[in-house]
Design a protein that fits this description.
The protein has about 60 residues and is an alpha+beta fold. The chain is about 45% helix and about 20% strand. The chain contains two helices and three strands. It has helices at about 25-40, 50-60; strands at about 1-5, 10-15, 20. Helix 1 (about 25-40) runs antiparallel to helix 2. The longest helix is centred in the middle third of the chain and has 14 residues, at about 25-40.
C-alpha cells in the first residue's frame, strides 16, 4: 500500500487500484476502512494496509 500527498489531496494506491481524495476526507476514509474491517472479518487483514497507511498520514500531517 502506498500513500502520497500534497497540501490539498492524498492518493492511496493499492495493487490494482488507486484513489485520490481531499485531505479533509482523511478521517472519513479511515473510518470507512475501519468499518469494512469490522464488517468483514473473513477478509483476514485485507484492510490492515490501507488503515496503517492512513493512520501514518494522519500522524504525519497532524489531522
Amino acid at each position: 500500500m502506498k500513500i502520497t500527498h500534497d497540501d490539498k489531496t492524498f492518493t492511496l494506491t493499492g495493487r490494482y487500484w488507486s484513489g485520490t481524495f481531499p485531505i479533509e476526507e482523511l478521517p472519513k476514509q479511515l473510518a470507512f476502512y475501519r468499518s469494512q474491517r469490522d464488517k468483514f472479518p473473513k477478509a483476514r487483514g485485507a484492510y490492515d494496509a490501507p488503515i496503517a497507511a492512513l493512520e501514518k498520514l494522519e500522524e504525519e500531517i497532524g489531522a
